[in-house]
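Running this now, will post back.
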Amino acid sequence: MTSPPQTVRTIDDLGGPAGHLEALLNTGSPQAKYAVLLCHPHPLGGGTMHNKVVYHAMKAFQSRGLPVLRFNFRGTGLSQGLHDHGHGEQDDVRAALDWLDRNLHLPILLAGFSFGAYVGLSAVCSDPRVRGAVALGLPFGAEGRSYAYDFLSTCTIPKLFVSGTNDQFGPRNQVAAGVAAAHPPAEMVWVEGADHFFTGKLDQVQSAIRNWLQARFP
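Update: finished.
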């Protein structure tokens, strides 16, 4: 499929409970049937909306003509506020959902990498505006932080999980158990030999996203 012409817009009117949130919108096709919200990894580890995995995920969604909103969590980049260890960041996700709903009037797909996957899933599973979710590098423990996913047992939207078999923050047995306990539909794609950051394997991440979109949201 040939990608439609696209532009990148700086979003100046995305505000959350902690203040202004820095954001970019990659526009999509006028015929797009979904919009995408994309969440970045942990800011204390240098994560921003410009992260390489986030960027490549954006390109995968763009290849299907979908508009993609990326934003920086509170206290990251030019976003106002202070880092809140995944709590207030869920409110940032909800603010971004509100912006997409208000401005694009489309059903929404959520995608996140690492911390962004945890925070994004935590925030959207009960939101009727969100029709599906992609979790890249689902983390279970990183630098003293731990993450639990009990809420996935009641998360009924279609879900795609993509992890590396050598992910240092999401061991294969833990990720597999978490996905098995998730409410269906929940699909798992393993990237053989990939670490948490999918080093040298980002093309396989893009392929997994595109294949899921084609199957679930053609």
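The chain is about 30% helix and 25% strand. More later if anyone needs it.
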